[in-house]
Every structure is written in structure tokens, then in C-alpha cells.
Design a protein that fits this description.
The protein has 193 residues and is of the alpha+beta class. The protein is built from four helices and nine strands. The chain has one domain.
Amino acid sequence: MGRPELFHCADWGTEISDVEDSQGHPIFKKVTITWSRPRTWKHDEPAPIETEDKSSCLYCLLRDHKRQKAKDKIVYIGLTKNIHGRFYNHPKAEKIRNKRGSTLLTVGSVNFGRYWRSVANTGPALEQLEHLLIWSIFPKFNDRKMGQLPGMGKHKTKPWWIVRKGFTFHGTMPREIVYPWMLVKLGRDRSTR
């Protein structure tokens, strides 16, 4: 998909970190997702998460079937509050692993900074982050969330500033996402004489 023709990001006249509400608080909630190095998930083995001790996190399934141009292509993005129990019954993951080639799993721990003090309150936030990643990457197997814009589901989306750290996904995962921003298409400026 190409860039929308003649659209530009609106110029807000400042850095993202400096956009504030009327009380002086940053509007965009900055979070950092640190992705682990992908590990191969073989067909008849449990998920390679033995070293993970994260209670709430995002995860990506990647595929490498050797004949594609890009290596380790992201095919699924998910979230879980219990990484060790998530993969016992996961039909999409099973479908992906049954295809020819290798399947890899990477786990992203989310640092909410000072915005969420309790892990129990991170469920809606994780769902929003997952939805934004799905829309920015368009993975093949996340078809259910592709039919709905971020913020139109059960939990309304907040303004986010998502920063990726750790594994780089060979450039296929955005380094930073700012949501929502504004695209504008300028008309001809007739104000000068």
C-alpha cells in the first residue's frame, strides 16, 4: 500500500513529547515494547517460552519458508496476561505452525512508564497496543481485528506513542507509532497577493 497521495501529517509545531493538555500533562502516552530475539517453535514441541516470566505481554509469530523475499515475516500479533498458559490451546498458532517452513516466536514486554501502576489495569491498554500494531503491520492471520479500526472496539483507544526496542524485525515492525495523528490535504494557498 502506498502513501496517500498529496496528504501530509499536520504540523503541530512541536515535538510529540511536548504536546500537552490544558493541565500540562503529555497527551501521547509513551510506552516501550522490548521484543525478545525470536526462537524457533517446532511442530511437536511446546512454545519456546521457558525463560519468559512476563505476566502481561504481546507476542509475534514469524514465518520463514525460505522462498519469500523478506526473511522472518510477521504473520500474527497477539496479547496475553499469562504467557505460560496462552499456547496450550491456540488454533491460529497451530494453523501457522502446521505450514511448511519454520515458525518463530518473539515476546514483547511492555513498559507503561508512569501511566499504569497496576498490572491488573493493563488489559485494555494491551488490547489497544495490539490493535495498533496489527493495523500498522497488516499481518496475514489477524483477520478479525483488520475489519475494525483501532478505537472502535470494546475499549476506546487512547493517544499512544509506541516505541520499539530489542529485536528489530529486519525493519518490518515500525520503530515508533504515534496514534492518532492527523493527515491533511492542502488546497492552493490564495492568501498572498
